[in-house]
Amino acid sequence: MAAKKTAAKKPAVRKAADRDLKSLEKKIGKVPKFFKELTTNEPEMFNLVMRFEQHIWDDGKLSKKTKKLIAIAIAAALRDQHAVRAQLAGAANLGVTKAEVEEALRVTFLLSGMPAYVYGKAQLDEVMK
């Protein structure tokens, strides 16, 4: 009988997970495959991560825009192409301008050096034409 209850909940859980993934993609761009697989392989972990993500990105003392600029600068400093592109896609959805990203990348240059700045700038020029 427990199996029937679980089976009955799956479509509703899957629908909620799909909605969460679409919302996340709107915010950050392409969601990694492994994270999508969590919706079926580890649904409890997926829900915890989504709650944590929501908590972090909600406006607080810093706006979502400011947090996005910080995320872009960090991703550029780490030279993580997927993260930079995902954060830039999400930035466009928040109304972040190219000039704002360039300014954040200048801070990256100051703290992480020329290679991180050049890396972030190249991604910016390609994503936000």
Describe this structure in words.
The chain folds into 2 domains: 1-58, no CATH class; 61-129, AhpD-like (Up-down Bundle). The protein is 84% helix and 0% strand. The protein is built from 7 helices and no strands. The chain has helices spanning 2-28, 33-41, 43-57, 64-78, 81-93, 98-112, 114-127.
Helix content: over 70%
Major sheet, described briefly?
Answer: none
**What overall geometry do the principal axes of the alpha carbons give?**
elongated
Q: Which class best fits the helix and strand makeup?
A: mainly alpha
| Series of H and E elements | HHHHHHH
Strand content of the residues, in percent?
under 5%
- CATH-defined architecture of the largest domain: Up-down Bundle
- Round the mean pLDDT to the nearest integer and report it: 83
